Amino acid sequence: MIPRRRAGQARPGRLWPAAVVAICALPWACGNKGNPRPPEFVRPQRIEDLAATPSRTGIRLSWTRPTKTVDGNDMPDLDGFVVSRATGATSVESAHFETIATIHLDDRERFAKVHRMTYDDLRVTPGETYLYRVVAFTLDGYVGGPSRVARAQWSGAAREAASE
Fold this sequence. Notes:
Immunoglobulin-like; mainly beta; 8 strands
């Protein structure tokens, strides 16, 4: 005699393939290995070595490209930098910084990336002192902390510069 199934009851052999597929898919369900990282940890590290150097044509800023996030992990998705400048400030605390450039990187996919970044500020006035800072940002919009402030005065020819 064949046992009868009740309405809505699955056949004994039908659940096995579905269970195997579900169990095999579990390891790939998340997409990322490891625990998720909070947003404050995936920001680019702060630029520590911003330098401002007067030249014949303006003021050249230079800094080392950050390669790590604030929690020390590699950062493959650095998108660029925002360069800000303050004019006529007597101190860093009283400075009003305005964005003068946004620099987007185009070498993320290359094996050899540019490690030392530069930007030439050509909109300068002789005798004026300028304060600069740079902030890095990622493709996802995470923004690092502002760099150290670099100070320079342009006289139309190379002149002494300092970092604070």
